[in-house]
Amino acid sequence: MDYGRPAAQFEARNAIALAPDYLRKKVTVRGRISAVDTSDPERCIVKLDHGVTAHFGEFKAMAERYKLGEVIHISGIVEAVNPSGITLDPAFGRDPKAPFAPLAPAP
User: Fold this and answer.
1) For residue 3, what pLDDT is reported?
2) What are the angstrom distances between the C-alpha of 84 and each of 25, 50, 70?
């Protein structure tokens, strides 16, 4: 995965509208956690409100540190986009203190 700068940054509520332009590119999304699933330690998943699914792979400890309702930043590659959400795979947590300048959808 490219560990450099993301091609775009956006809020989870705008992800479905903006992500199609960034398919297979690294993005950062900020949103509220709606679910964390570490039941399969090789396929850990963190979900944000508004249909953002982030595949953390084998990074179970990272996924488990997040709490439901917490607002976090996730960076990852836009793997898929559909009308109900987007998938970031692979994905990982990002420092919330790092610069974040989210795009907004066109009016």
Assistant:
1) 59
2) 19, 8, 21
**35 secondary structure, DSSP code:** E
| Cα dist from 90 to 26, 43, 45, 71, whole Å | 9, 10, 10, 19
- The CATH number for 8-94, chosen from 3.40.50.150, 2.40.50.140, 3.40.190.10, 3.40.50.2300, is 2.40.50.140
How many Å apart are CA 67 and CA 54, to the nearest integer? 15
Query: pTM value?
Result: 0.92
Question: Omega before 83 cis (within 30°)?
Answer: no
